[in-house]
Each structure stands twice: as C-alpha cells, then as structure tokens.
Amino acid sequence: GDLRADKEFAGHDPGFIYRTTERSWFDFPAKFNRILLVGIMGERWTSFLTCYLWLGLGVVAVVLLIVGRQQDAGTVLLLFAVLVGVVLRITRIDGIYPSLWWIVAAPVAAGLLLLLAPKSRTVARLFFALLAAGFFLMAAALNDWVEGRRGGVQIGPIPRGTPVNLIINVNPQAPKGDLIEALSGLTRGVLRIRKERLSDENGAALRAFEAEAGPALLKASKCPDFVLDRGHWFADGLSKDQKQQLTEFLKTL
Fold this sequence. Notes:
Oligomer: single chain
Helix content: 55-70%
C-alpha cells in the first residue's frame, strides 16, 4: 500500500512506493524448495552443496576411520572452527548473536585437547565413525528437504513499511558475492527483529531491518528504484511564460 501519509514509515518517499501495510512473511511451499535454490545458486551448486559435498565428506571420514590418527581428529576440529568463524564474520550474524562464537570455541578446545592428549586409536576411530555418520545423515536430510519432503521455507518477519520490491526484485543473476551479502543481510534483519522484539508501531522494526538488510538487498536488486509514480514532469523545463501559454492552450481543448 501507499504509506506516505504515515510519517514514521514513508514520509520522505519521493513518490508512490508499494510497502507492506502489516508484519508479513514470505512462504514457499515445500515443492518449491529446489526451484528456490536453483534460482539462487544454479543446478550444479545446488546439487553440490545439498548432496555431493556431504557424501564426499562422508567418504573422506570413512577413509580416516581406517587410517586416521588422533592428531587428524584434532586437526579436523580446528579446521571446522576456522570455517565456522569465517562464515560468522562474512555473514556478520555474530553481531546479532555473539554467543554463536561458542560454536568456534568448543571445537578449538576439543581439537587442542586431541592434539596434546596421549594418542589413542580408539578415540580417533570413534570420532571419525561419528563424523561419517553425521555427514551421511546430513546428505540424506538435505536431499529430502530439497525434494520437498521436510517442509517449505518461511522468511520473516518482514516489518510493516518495508518496500515490497526491496526483496522481490533481488536478481538471481547478480554476482554470487552480492547474493550472499543480500541473504546474510536479510537473515540479520529478521534475527535482529526477533531477538530485540522490535515493534512495528513506532517504526523501530523497519529501521533495524533496513539498517541490516537494506544496502545489501539494493546492491543485488534488478531495479533499485522502487518509485512507481513520481508525478507528471511534463513541461517542467519550460519557462514561466511558456507554462502560462501551455495552460491557456489546454483550456481550449
């Protein structure tokens, strides 16, 4: 709807911009899971990240189950911690939930313990057996989800006053870095609203959402100008006398 009459939400809009008139959610039924992912990442990356990656890691874990040592288990935990830390910093979700750094600290502590403790093949085998099982279960679960057997996707809450085109105009063909940042910003915006329990009444939820998600979503947008009607600018460049003459002419029609 047009919220320009509400100064808290659209008082500075230069024209008519479609905005959500109440708190909203984007609901994708389960049958569209694969279509949604393929639209964002493409068929190859979707198959790789939701199936082949985990199967490959499972096979590696099985090999390490046979030949791996306790030091290898410690190294794997440290690599996992580094990977999680990189994801947290790239997405900046740790700015919303700093406690997520425990997911990094715990593997680091466990990894160092395995590296420094007395060596045991039993510990190494148990670790890699659990790791292999986890990877294979992850591949099965993700495959079920992608094929629509584990529910759909719900994105929200999207606060009142959000420009609708800010989200639906995201370009799937934009550079992968821009898409990752857009998805990260959208996630941060939603998480911040939930964590801080921000209200729509005073525009607090909208300001937080736009601060977290706005710039990234605009960068990945196919059409960053959301104004649908700026008014009529015909004759704007005419002089005062020319405008008067035009007015008198139009009166004769």
